Structures are given as structure tokens and as C-alpha cells.
Amino acid sequence: MQTQTSTIAEARELHAFGLRCLEALHAGEQRLPRGPDFEEERGWLASAARRVEREAQGLSAALAGAIALPEFEAERQARAKELFESWIDAVEGLAVGISSRLSPQSPLLEVLFQHQKFDKLRRGGNAARAYLTDLERRRRTAYVVRLSGEPEYDVLPPLLARLDAAKLAFEEQEQPPALAEDELAALRHGVLAAADGLRAVLHQARLLADAALSAHPGWFAELGLDAKPRSKRSARPAADAEPT
User: Fold this and answer.
1) Is the dihedral of CA 54, 60, 63, 64 positive or negative?
2) How far apart are CA 79 and CA 21, in angstroms?
3) 43: which DSSP letter?
4) Which of 20, 47, 77, 177 has a 20 to 30 A CA-CA distance from 123?
5) For the CA atoms of the chain, what is the radius of gyration?
6) What is the pLDDT of residue 117?
7) What is the C-alpha separation between 18 and 227, in angstroms, rounded?
8) pLDDT tens across 182-240, in order?
9) Where are the domains of the chain?
10) Cα 1–Cα 70–Cα 122 angle in degrees, nearest 5
């Protein structure tokens, strides 16, 4: 089914525009004089805000669920970087936990860690990955597993669980499941359809806001409610760049 929104980039910009519109609607509601004279108008603005918020949340969920699309490669890389940092945090947390809860001279530190230059690991690269692979091997040794089950080493299980969870989260982000073309197309269509829903509601919201603020000339434009989302269809002339 054809959608009015044509690209993921357009949908993302529409989402950002919707959030700005939502703020403007709330601001307009607050600006109206209190009392019975403008009770209906405040209701119109509140209704418009609820509609925009609902559709913006729907589009936000659709965008988040479509992270596997090629258009989100930059976001996936940024997320992978965050998760790698969290992995190193867990590695450092393991060392700090052993030092503070057991002893700075605990043999576990030597057993588990080649070194404790964690800032160096945060740079990533082959050396950091080799270190982490070696740490995984070390934490699976019989010695570490045995100590983890002893009461006097009860600090170890939660530290190792955090390490394992951080490693798994990074690996899942780094190697997402491959999707077929029809699955990618369905994700993309879901985003574009959600964007169309927000687009329609934004048009309704502008009409409601224009009526609610009509007794106060200039407020509609001052609040930015006269703005319209831009289209990404570069083939259109500038005069047609803003859909109604």
C-alpha cells in the first residue's frame, strides 16, 4: 500500500516535528486566560495534544522496532559503541569489586586479568577484543568457577553475571539476526504508515489550534503552530515542499 511518507529519514524528521508541535500545543493551552471564557478552547488544544502524543508514541515505537533496517546503520554503530563501553565498565567493575570486597592482593586479579589498563581497552580494536576473549577464557577456568560457589567469595557471582550480560548484549547488537527482504519491507512500511498517521493528526491539530487561538491574533504563529513538516521529496519544487 502506498504511503504519503516516502523515506525513513522523512519519518524521523516528522517525529521530531511532532514533538515540537506537542510542546507548542501545551504552551498554547497554558497561555490562554484561565476561567470559563476559554474553557472550550483549552479543551480543543488539550485534545489536539493528546492526539499528537498518541501518534508520536506510535511512530517512536515503529522506529525503535525497525532498527534492523539499513537506514539505521549509524544508530546501530552508536549503540554498539555504548554497549562496548558497558562491557568494559563490567570488566573494570569486576576488578574493582574483587579489590574492594576481597583484597587488592587477591590472586583472582592475576588469574583473571592480563593487566588493568581499562582506559586502553576503551579504545577498542583488535588488542581490546583479544583481551576480552582471553578474559572470557580465564573466567571459565575451574579455579574461578570453584571460588564462585564458595560463601566467602559471594561477591563474585553478581560481578560475573554483570560481565556475562554486558558481553551478550554487545554480541547481540554486533550480530543482529538477518532479515529477509520482505521482512525489511514490512518494517519499513510500518514506520511509513505510522508517520502518515502522525502527519494526518498534525493537520487536525493545526486546525484545532488555529480555532482555539483565533481570539488572540499572532499567537498561532508565535507558538510555531503555523509551521508544517518538510517533505524529503527533492524532486518537488520548493513551493510544494510542505504537505498540507
Assistant:
1) negative
2) 28
3) H
4) 177
5) 27
6) 94
7) 11
8) 999 999 999 999 999 999 999 999 999 999 999 999 999 999 999 988 765 543 433 33
9) 8-68+179-240, 74-174
10) 150
Amino acid of residue 182: D
Asked whether 39 and 211 are in contact (CB, 8 A), the reply is no
Quick one: pLDDT at residue 232?
52
Residue in 163, 12, 43 with CA at minimum distance from that of residue 96: 163
- More confident call, 232 vs 149: 149
Query: What's phi and psi for 33, nearest 5 deg?
Result: -60, 140
The type of residue at 84 is F
Task: Give the cell for residue 37.
Answer: 471564557
Question: For the range 65-74, what are the long-range contacts, defined as Cβ-Cβ under 8 Å and sequence gap of 24 or more?
Answer: 65/187, 65/190, 66/8, 66/187, 66/188, 66/190, 66/191, 67/176, 68/176, 68/177, 68/179, 68/184, 68/187, 69/8, 69/184, 69/187, 69/188, 69/191, 70/184, 71/7, 71/8, 71/9, 72/8
DSSP letter assigned to residue 197: H
CB 19 within 8 A of CB 202: no
Give Cα 71 to chain centroid, integer Å: 14
The span from the CA of 106 to the CA of 95, in Å, is 10
State the residue for C-alpha cell 522523512: 10
Which has the closest alpha carbon to 95: 105, 80, 82?
Answer: 105
Q: What angle do CA 52, 57, 63 make, to 5 degrees?
A: 125
Sign, CA dihedral 30-32-37-39, equals negative
Grid cell, residue 168, equals 551478550
